[in-house]
């Protein structure tokens, strides 16, 4: 059965009516084509017709100069004018503010770590390019930090009296009534006279508090929510207590040995090599627990592997005054002869000794920038020292009672515990020494002070005394903003575990602890010259005096890698033989000169005419 053909299926196209091409629809991100001439119909641009002329060959230099499509390292623009302007977006609109966000120059200088007054040393081109690239990266990092400062919404607090009122006369009850409810809840007193006096310590995040009583009471709690983590009685005198790298581990210096507990109060370790411990300090970036003992030994324990790094004999009797410098991790020890010694686990002798008082040293404290050190002694003197190489006293004050405990806050406030009174002095800001003329705040406790510490990232001062624990409100004491990747008070258990792994991978070796950490990035020119001199004496010649031999390229496959190495080695051996031969001839000549008669002076030489 035949079917009728469909119309237009097999018919040839008509000649008088040309077939029109379908117009390609324009996307919304494409620009409208402009007509090439007046009256021309819009349409896609036609391709140029190819001609029979051959394409000129590309030169070899042009191939070498061509950059790859994807670079391994993205180029870092040095100036704001080097940034490329953004291209047209999908919607067709352009950015009304092209380029990077301008950063304030003064803020960028605050974060800048490059000293542009020092010129780059003359070096090889490759090293010079690496130094320039590193300088550009540091400059870009400072600009980004200056832009990100806008996101820090919190500002440090302060306390100002009305009409010239002395802030030292403002009571804690007045401050509690003036602040909000959440801040007022941070002021509390724990009445624990049965097991006192108490030592206390805050965790690095400032969220947890550990306290230890002289009569064996040990407890750890979340002091913000008042949730108790653990509470035990070790039935032994507790001399000091300290958190380790996180709130999950706790070091307790008991009467005889050092013990490690977890946050549930379970005993994990008993370290018998650290006996008669009086004070504890933990170095968080090195994972080192420093202990001072009655026997006069300063011991460093690596808590990541559980081994003793070193035990140093201070040769100064009982050690019961210790503080750490947060800037360079150097331990400061106070002695009964009025001196303060600075120690590093890499040295058997102290890095420096400072004569501070005419009597014994009672307390030592170092600020967070590592610039100033406060000491108090039996001569009732409170002194501020400059640690930037001079070790000279900047200011001093005579107290009616000698301060038995000292501590610095994150923003440079200094607190001193004298009997049952706590005095706080403030300075011009962070990085400036506190002024000892007039106290900033004063508070009287219900017992004698036995421990002081400012809470990190909170305007709170924790005081351990014979009657228990007191939490004071000190406006302007702490940093208002915290680094969520380093010390996050609100981190979960999983975040804490990930942070521990990262911190262990970035652990700083104990051998790098020194007075000036910036010296680690510099070249030790003296040692380098001494090593070069010893090498010349050992070899008998200077191997760097002459440029190395570079063989010329030869034809017909005679410039292979093996032949080049052989030719280099042959020339080097010949030069070495020549230099050794010259040195031997010089030695023989010296021996012959010594063997000649009359070479040595004689008593009869004065009669020779």
TrEMBL record:
GO cellular component, one term: nucleolus
Domain BING4 C-terminal as annotated: residue spans: 439-517
Region entry Disordered, spans: 1-104, 116-137, 537-609
SMART domains, sorted: BING4CT, WD40
Residues of the signal peptide: none
InterPro entries: BING4_C_dom, WD40/YVTN_repeat-like_dom_sf, WD40_repeat_dom_sf, WD40_rpt, WDR46/Utp7
Primary localization class, coarse: nucleus
Record key words, sorted: Nucleus, Phosphoprotein, Repeat, WD repeat
Basic and acidic residues compositional bias, start-end: 8-19, 571-596
Compartment(s) of residence: Nucleus, Nucleolus
Quaternary assembly: Part of the small subunit (SSU) processome, composed of more than 70 proteins and the RNA chaperone small nucleolar RNA (snoRNA) U3. Interacts with DDX21, NCL, NOP2 and EBNA1BP2.
Function: Scaffold component of the nucleolar structure. Required for localization of DDX21 and NCL to the granular compartment of the nucleolus. Part of the small subunit (SSU) processome, first precursor of the small eukaryotic ribosomal subunit. During the assembly of the SSU processome in the nucleolus, many ribosome biogenesis factors, an RNA chaperone and ribosomal proteins associate with the nascent pre-rRNA and work in concert to generate RNA folding, modifications, rearrangements and cleavage as well as targeted degradation of pre-ribosomal RNA by the RNA exosome.
PANTHER family to which the protein is assigned, alphabetical: WD REPEAT-CONTAINING PROTEIN 46, WD-REPEAT PROTEIN BING4
Name listed for the protein in its UniProt record: WD repeat-containing protein 46
Gene designation per UniProt: Wdr46
């Amino acid at each position: 059965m035949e079917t009728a053909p469909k119309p237009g299926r097999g018919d040839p196209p008509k000649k008088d009516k040309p077939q029109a091409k379908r117009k390609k629809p324009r996307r919304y991100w494409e620009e409208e084509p402009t007509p090439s001439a007046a009256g021309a119909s819009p349409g896609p641009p036609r391709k140029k017709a190819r001609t029979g002329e051959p394409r000129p060959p590309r030169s070899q230099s042009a191939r070498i100069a061509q950059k790859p499509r994807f670079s391994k390292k993205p180029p870092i623009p040095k100036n704001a004018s080097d940034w490329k302007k953004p291209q047209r977006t999908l919607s067709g609109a352009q950015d009304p503010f092209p380029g990077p966000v301008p950063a304030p120059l003064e803020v960028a200088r605050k974060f800048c770590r490059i000293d542009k007054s020092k010129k780059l040393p003359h070096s090889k081109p490759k090293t010079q390019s690496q130094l320039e690239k590193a300088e550009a990266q540091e400059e870009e990092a400072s600009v980004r930090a200056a832009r990100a400062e806008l996101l820090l919404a919190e500002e440090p607090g302060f306390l100002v009296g009305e009409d010239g009122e002395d802030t030292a006369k403002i009571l804690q009850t007045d401050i509690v009534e003036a602040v909000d409810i959440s801040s007022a809840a941070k002021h509390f007193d724990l009445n624990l006279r049965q097991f006192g006096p108490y030592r206390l310590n805050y965790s690095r995040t400032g969220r947890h508090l550990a306290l230890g009583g002289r009569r064996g009471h040990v407890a750890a709690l979340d002091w913000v929510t008042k949730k108790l983590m653990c509470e035990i009685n070790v039935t032994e005198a507790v001399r000091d207590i300290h958190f380790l790298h996180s709130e999950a581990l706790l070091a307790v210096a008991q009467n005889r040995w050092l013990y490690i507990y977890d946050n549930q109060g379970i005993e994990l370790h008993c370290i018998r090599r650290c006996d008669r411990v009086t004070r504890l300090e933990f170095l968080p970036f090195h994972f080192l627990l420093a202990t001072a003992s009655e026997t006069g030994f300063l011991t460093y324990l690596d808590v990541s592997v559980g081994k003793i790094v070193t035990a140093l004999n201070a040769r100064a009797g009982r050690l019961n005054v210790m503080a750490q410098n947060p800037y360079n991790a150097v331990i400061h020890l106070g002695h009964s002869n009025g001196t303060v010694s600075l120690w590093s686990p890499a040295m058997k002798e102290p890095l420096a000794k400072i004569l501070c008082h005419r009597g014994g040293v009672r307390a030592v404290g170092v600020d967070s920038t590592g610039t100033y050190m406060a000491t108090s002694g039996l001569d009732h003197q409170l002194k501020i020292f400059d640690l930037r190489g001079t070790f000279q006293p900047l200011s001093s004050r005579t107290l009616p009672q000698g301060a038995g405990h000292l501590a610095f806050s994150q923003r440079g406030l200094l607190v001193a515990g004298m009997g049952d009174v706590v005095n706080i002095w403030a300075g011009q800001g962070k990085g400036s020494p506190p002024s000892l003329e007039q106290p900033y705040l004063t508070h009287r406790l219900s017992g004698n002070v036995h421990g002081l510490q400012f809470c990190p990232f909170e305007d709170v001062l924790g005081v351990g005394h014979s009657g228990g624990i007191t939490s004071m409100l000190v406006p302007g004491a702490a940093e208002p903003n915290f680094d969520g990747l380093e010390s996050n008070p609100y981190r979960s258990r999983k975040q804490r575990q990930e942070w521990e792994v990262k911190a262990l991978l970035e652990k700083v070796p104990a051998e790098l602890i020194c007075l000036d950490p910036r010296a680690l990035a510099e070249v030790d020119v003296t040692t380098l010259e001494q090593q070069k001199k010893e090498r010349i004496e050992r070899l008998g010649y200077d191997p760097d005096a002459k440029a190395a031999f570079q063989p010329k390229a030869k034809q017909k496959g005679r410039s292979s890698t093996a032949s080049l190495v052989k030719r280099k080695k042959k020339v080097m051996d010949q030069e070495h033989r020549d230099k050794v031969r010259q040195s031997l001839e010089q030695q023989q000549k010296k021996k012959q000169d010594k063997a000649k008669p009359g070479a040595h002076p004689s008593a009869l030489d004065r009669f020779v005419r």
